[in-house]
Every structure is written in C-alpha cells, then in structure tokens.
Amino acid sequence: MVNLFERIEDRPTPKAVYNWRVYACAIVAATAAIMIGYDSAFIGTSMALASFKNEFGLAHKTSKQFAAISANIVSTYQGGCFFGSLLGYPLGQILGRRLGLFISALVFVLGAGVMLAADGARGLGPIYGGRIVAGLGIGAASNLTPLYISEIAPPAIRGQLVGMYELGWQIGGLVGFWINYGVSENIPSSHKQWLIPFAVQLIPGALFAIGIPFFVR
C-alpha cells in the first residue's frame, strides 16, 4: 500500500533538515492561500444578502443593473490581482521573499480595512477602492508564496509543503462560500450582517503578516 506521506528521495538527506520550523513556515505561508481563497469566494454571496442590497440601494435595481454592479465589484478585485501579480516577482527579487510577502500582506490588510468603511452614506466607493488594493496584495502574494515554499522545502517533502498552499486555498474558499449562510441564518438583516464577512478577511491577512517575520530566510 502506498504511503502518501512517505519521503521519496534519491539521495540521503540529514534528518535535521526535516525540522518543525520548515513545516511551521509552510503552514503560515499557506494562510496567504486562505485569504486568497476566501476573498475570491465570499463576495458573491455577500452581495446576495438582502441587508447588503438594502444598505446600498440595490434592492430596487433591475437584474441587469445589479449584475453590472456585481461584475464591477468583482472585476476591480481581479484587476488589482493582475497588476499585483506583475509586481510580485520584481518585489521578491529586489526586496527578498520575506519582505515582499510582508508588504503584500500589509497591502491586503489595508484594502480589507478600507472596505469596512463602506455604508449607505458613503456608498460602494470604499468597497471598490478596497477591492483594488486588496487585489494588489493578493496578486503579489499568490506569486511569491508558492515560490517561497518551494525554495525552503527539502526535495523529498517539497510536494507536501507546496500542497499546503492549495489546501489553504480550498479552505478559504469553503469558508467564504458558507460564511454568508451562517450570518443570514443567525444574524438579523442589518449593517452588521453583511459587514462580518467583509471583516473576516482581516483574520488570515493579519495572521499572515504576523507570522512572516518568523520565516526562515
């Protein structure tokens, strides 16, 4: 029977290489994938909440108008990701992987924080702006994180550690899709109801930023 966790290597590797810090760094780096997966998944179901539609005057829009606004909110994030991914590689090359990832995390947290300023009076502007800024951080992080993990991973367990990145992405996506079901069932329709899913973005972003200084070089 095949052992999925067996270390397959064609040359002897010192046992000291397989230390807890390598695994810890890969797990912390995978929180970048959690914020990527979450940010990609939660927005659609958040915009479908009645509390979100009522707050921003979308409840009385035609389906075509609402679809256009939803597409704009999603595409601003994708645009930020595009330019962030282009900036990620030179950022990592010039400043180093750790500092590049740290800057990416801070940019993402900044963008997520800007989104929380949105309300009925300010309109959707902070969400548009925050999505662009968060996308810049996500784009750079999605470029640098797999690169960093592959560079610190011993060859025999490189696949396992890089796989944590994909696992984190799926965990973030799962939470992003289900969180709005949770708030819709347990929190009355209000400003707080739709704001909670937006605020949860800060959790993986903050954990990622806090953990980066402890990364191996």
Secondary structure elements and their pairing?
Blueprint: H1 20-47, H2 50-55, H3 63-95, H4 97-115, H5 125-152, H6 158-186, H7 191-200, H8 202-211
Helix pairs in contact: 1-5, 1-6, 1-8, 3-4, 3-5, 4-5, 4-8, 5-6, 6-7
Description:
The protein contains eight helices and no strands. The protein is mostly helical and 217 residues long. The radius of gyration is 19 Å and the shape is elongated. The mean pLDDT is 87. The chain has a single domain, classed as Growth Hormone, Chain: A (Up-down Bundle). Helix 1 packs antiparallel against helix 8 and helix 3 runs antiparallel to helix 4.
Structural class: mainly alpha
| Tally of individual domains | 1
- The count of β-strands is 0
Rg, rounded, reads 19 Å
CATH superfamily: MFS general substrate transporter like domains
Helix content: over 70%
Tell me, rounded to a whole number, the average pLDDT.
Answer: 87
Q: What does the largest sheet look like?
A: none
Question: If classified by CATH, what would the architecture be?
Answer: Up-down Bundle
CATH class: Mainly Alpha
Uncertain stretches of 5 or more adjacent residues: none
Overall geometry comes to elongated
Helices and strands, in order, run as: HHHHHHHH
Through-space gap between termini: 37 Å
Proportion of residues in extended strands = under 5%
CATH topology: Growth Hormone, Chain: A
DSSP helical segment count: 8
